[in-house]
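Supplementary Data S3. Sequence and structure tokens for construct A.
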Amino acid sequence: MRNTWILATAILLAVAPAALADSIQLFVNSSVLATFSSPNDNFWGTYYTGHPYTDFPSLGNDVGVFADFSGVSLFVPTGNAVTSATINVILPAASIQGTGVNFALTSFPAPNPGISIAPTFNGTGFTNVSASLSSFSVPLPSPVVSGNEVSTGDLALLFLLDGSIHDTVATPGVNWYGYIGGSGQVLIPYTVELDVTYTPVPEPSTVALLGTGILGLAGAARRWLYL
């Protein structure tokens, strides 16, 4: 009898169609506008018209920007079940350019008495900001699966910014002691990907048919073995 079931199972596996897994991806491009003010940087120096003033003020570390990405979803074809689902976030590989401005905030007495004239900046410039996911968003949460719908749920991304504001001196400052400030904006583009794998769900009639086939093959194999 044991040999009968072994043979029947082998025949069934040879003729039964395999349930092949398939996958689907959803790529959604978005962006978030980050507005920031730099902490004050104290600086001393002589500034000449036309000379670039670089690397100050800095944005500081861990300037946080939240991006809401909830409720984005996709649907797998009817008659299939989700077997796995993941969320991925794709960020720019290089630094992101934006707009910013430097300004002289206030002066304070120099260590040695002398002329102290605050510089003024041209009012425009650019920021050089790098964006990355914070520890609050890593690892990313799993998607929400409800039937054949896969959603990002209440996903909120937190980006960290660092960098500096570059500008050009409009009027010179001579031996100036004081605080330099800055403000700016940068648009951070990013892509969120939903990656879903699914397989067909056998209908009850198909399961019953396969069960009947097993019994039929078992009987046929038994008769064949006793011939």
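Construct B, processed identically:
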Amino acid sequence: MRFVLHLIGAVVVAVILGLGSAYYVARYAVQGEALVANGPWVTNLETGGTDADIYTRAFVALTGLLALNKSETIYYNATADSDGNALDGRCSYRIEGRDPDARWWSMTVYGRDHYLVDNPSKRYSVSQTTVTREPGGSFVVRLSTVEETGNWIATSPDGFQVTLRLYNPGVSVREEPGSVPLPAIVKESCS
């Protein structure tokens, strides 16, 4: 009888460890050769592909990305600024740059829970067609918890990430996703 109880206990521990480690890897540790960094932005070249491994597919399912086919869209995510420091919900940032090489693009802020950041102004993203540009064609988008006029997206004091979607990316993006010009993320101030 004692042996059976030990065996049941071992099976329960093995199942908990197995499921827990699979959940952790799928949710937080999707790494590998498919990840490409470009400044503060990181993309997984398997996202939206039929060749994606089970962990990438699980990560997409868990985070609600609803990825289009990788031939149609490349997704870059930023959890750090251009200096490599983690994005902090108590700080204000600016994203500055020019239009990425794509037919259309958008930048969206998500909270730590991978959902849009709730805010009274309903300002969740900017896109190629909504961003206001400077006279030379560049743009500056502000990220903060305090509402601003112009190009502004609300952030969460609990933490956030930014997703840059490039729809119908140009040949340069598809061939060299780690070296094409992408906007910089610059910390301005912290409270």
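The longest helix spans residues 2-28. The domain at 35-53+69-190 is CATH 2.60.120.600 (Jelly Rolls).
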